[in-house]
Amino acid sequence: MGQMDGGDGGGGGHQYHYQALLAAVHQQTLPFPHPLPLPAAAGPEAPPHNAAPQPPTPRGFADWSASTSAFSSLAAQSAPAASTNAVHYSISPCYAFWTHYMLNKNVYPSFPPPHDEQPHHLRLANNHPKDAGSASSFGVDSFTTASMAPNICTHMPPIEGPISVKEEKKPEDLPRVVKRSDVLETRNSGVELHSETVGTLPDSKQGHENHATKLNSGEYQVILRKELTKSDVGNVGRIVLPKKDAEASLPPLLQRDPVILHMDDMVLPVTWTFKYRYWPNNKSRMYILDSAGEFLKTHGLQAGDVLIIYKNLAPGKFIIRGEKAIHQRTTNP
DNA sequence: GCAATTGCATGATTT
DNA sequence: AAAATCATGCAATTG
Is A279 within 7 A of strand B by CB distance? Predict the structure, then answer.
């Protein structure tokens, strides 16, 4: 019901919708819109014949209903379909992109003023060149952090270029997931996760908070990031997860039985269903995300692309995203 | 018997 | 140098 099985055949005929949507996201033919105001929920202009698939509810990623209405209302403004399905989503990339960007950067123009030096988990965690080019990965090279988030630009380096997953790691340049894990590892010592993160934030109480507030409150955090290998994207549909991050942030696997994980797609209005399990391996374990074939296929992920899993700490839901690798020129201009 | 899926072992790489 | 991690291939199992 509303969920798309991540494994075999769950996509069915909808897959064309998703792929068209995804294609539109990556085409990025329209100018980037100002992210505010958020689209009103379920606007009256939402067409009953909306081509976008119905999302599962509730959405884990902030309020997917807002996202959905964005898809719906924006689709309604599109010219009547003349050619492909993609036209229905011709503007949705902008919203998806904003979503993508905000989750990636965890920034927002109305972030508290700079004098509030309270460390911000995501902001710090994302302060990493690897992600600095996410906006550019959608072809918006002129889109800078400063222009989007003037209040916090002093905390963040400007976007310098497209993401390059091939970039070498430097010791002082730890991937954010490592930093997140360092915090999240408290889970293994019996400390409640969100009491340490969300609880320290001023606006953690629910109510009228919107996307932005939730993002700023640090509810969404990158918990796992992996560059996909050839075997990950093979036709088996299983992805080996980094042990450290899996143990730190994914549900504990007490038994051999797989745990079913539902993860909202960050870009598409889909909830994927994965089987999360482990294999004994020497004296250790290998953590596997199974039934990922459809997800990989839908996003066209290949070796070198990156899988990113976010966690919404409050309801404990996950958001998953596949990021295509942009192979940056290594020669400087 | 075959294809798909699942489980495991091994070797390469990293820490 | 040893241990840990992980990519990958293959055997075993299942439908």
Answer: yes
